[in-house]
Amino acid sequence: MIATLTQSTGGTLTNRRTAWQQLSGRLVRNEDGRPMTSGELIEAAGLNWQVSKEKLQLASNGREVRGAFGLVRQDTGNVLSVVGSDYQPLQNSKAFSFLDSLLMDGIMKYEAALTIKGGQCLALIARLPSVDEIAPGDMQQRYLLLTNWHGGGSIGITPISFRVWCANQTTLVMEAGRRASCKLKHCGDLDAKLTMARRALARIDRAFTQYTDDARRLVVGHTREQAADYIRELYPVADNATERVRRATERRIAQVREAWLSPAQRADGVRGTWWGLYNAVTEAIDHARPARQSRNVTERLENRFVATTTGEGAEFKTRAFELAIAMSA
Prior knowledge:
This protein is an alpha+beta fold and 329 residues long.
């Protein structure tokens, strides 16, 4: 379930949307036009249900499970996670309240709220004010993915660069491939957590700057042979690979080839560059239809959201970006 505050506008070459925009439901805004706090957005989105910690019993004989408790979503009765006796649940309405002062400072603005996996995770999407231009007219918007996994014990802050032209998204890394994300524990003084969050945002800002500088290095031409080597390196096929593996790899490469011919990769200043080639890979991961997927639409979109922002899809895009940097040097 998701509520969207604003939609990305301007400069689009396609009508594609990010995984979180595909999950979008009703549009919610404050009547006075001011930015919504996290609590107001969560309330307007209908996500302000409570989580309680309850004792667990064995279904076979009703015996209590010592030291184990279930985090129960009160409106549905579903068990979201199993925790220990010391764990204290963090309610959705309060999960991100310590960050709300950043709204007043103009540091960020919430755009969306959603829950995934039946409510196991509450996520907010926040947009930062800076916009980065990679090639002429090719704009990247800065976003933060804020997550609270019930049972996880910490708030996650993950930076994501969003390409307006094709709705591709890249989860940023810092030096030596280390994720530019951070985690803040539930417990502790709110002011202390805000201080840690501001320090994390400073590191994240540097990661955005580094990503932009690196991305601009990719706005150089490649030869047909270099492009072929790049794809073979990303999608290798072992000599003893089964026919099934070969077909799956060929399918992925075909999706990249199709994305490489899309308007966003054929635009002036991007066509024939490493930047366009890398974005063909990200576009295939973010938007191409997988070989196997759930019949449940919501589950399908949630799986893609997790994969493309923090899961295996995000990791593959990181590898593709670093390989493009290395091969284009």
